[in-house]
Write a structure and sequence with these properties.
By secondary structure, the chain is α+β, with helices and mostly antiparallel strands. It has helices at about 30-45, 60-65, 145-165, 185-190, 205-210, 225-230; strands at about 15-20, 50-55, 70-75, 85-90, 95-100, 115-120, 130-135, 175-180, 205, 240-250, 250, 255-260, 275-285. The chain has one domain (about 15-285): Deoxyribonuclease I, Chain A (4-Layer Sandwich), CATH 3.60.10. It contains six helices and 13 strands. Strands 5, 6, 7, 8, 9, 10 and 11 form a seven-stranded mixed β-sheet that branches. The chain is globular.
Amino acid sequence: MTDGEQPPETAVRGLRVLTLNVLALEHAEGRRRLEVLRKELRGLRPDLVALQEVTRTEGYDQILDLLGPGYSVVDHPNPSPEGVGAALASRWPVRNARRLDLHITPRADLPWAAVEVAEVLAPAPLGPLLAVHHKPNWQYGREYEREQQAVAAARFVEQVVGEFGHGERELPVVLLGDFDAAPDAASIRFWTGRQSLDGTSVCYQDAWEAVHPGQAGHTFTPDNRLVRVGEMALERGRRIDYVMVRCGPHGPTLEVTGCQRILDQPVDGVWASDHFGVLADLQRPPRPIGTWA
C-alpha cells in the first residue's frame, strides 16, 4: 500500500441489530439506570439500533451517551416537551430517510407514532439495506389502531423498497421496534404473514421465533421489578419488542444467526428499563435466496 492510499474496507457480511425501550430518564432512578444501559450497549457494539423513550435535547443527547460517537441518527417526529421520543441509529451512513406519520385515527394519540425508513449503506458484501423503525400506539385497547398502523407502515415500506431496489438483488429490510402487541395479536400476525389486513399481506421473519421456536421470550414482564412498580402493575407478561426480516418470494433475505434478550436481569440491584431489549445477529446468505445451489 503506497503512501496516502486508504486501507481496504473490512468485508462485512453480517450485522448486529438491537431494539430497546430505555424508559424515560424521569422514571425509576433514571440516572442510575443510565450507567447500566451505557455499559451494556457499548459492550454489545450494535450496528443498527432502535431506541424508544430516549431523550434528545439541545443540552443532552442520550443516544450519544449510550452508544458513543460514530452513529448516524434518524429521529421520530414529535418528541415530548422534555425531548423524549424514539430514534434509529446506524453505525454506517444512512441516506434517503423517509417518514410516515401514524396518527391515522382519533385514538392514535402517541406523539411519536410513526414509521421511519432509512437506507443503510453497509459495506460489501453485505451491501445496502433498509432499516425500518416502527412505533405504533401502546394502549391495551388500541389494537385496531395498531392494525391500521401496521398496514400503513407495511405499504409504505413496499413503496420505498420499489424506489430503492438494487437491480436483481433483493433489498434486505430489517424491521424493529417496540410494537406493543403480543405475537398472537392481529397486528403481529399481519407482520409475520399469518393473516391479511385491509386487503394487504406481507411476511417478515420474527428473529426471536426463528431461533427460539415455542419460547415465550417476554420482554415486558412482572419478572422485572420496574413493571410491578410501574403504571401497568397487573401486567402478566408479553413479548412486545421485535426484530424482523422482510421475506421476498422465497423467504427472508437475511439469515437470523442469533437472537437473545438483553438486560433481562438487574445489575447490582438496578434494572436498566421496564423492557428487556432484543438483540439479533443477521447475516447475508452465501448465495441469493431463490436460486439453486
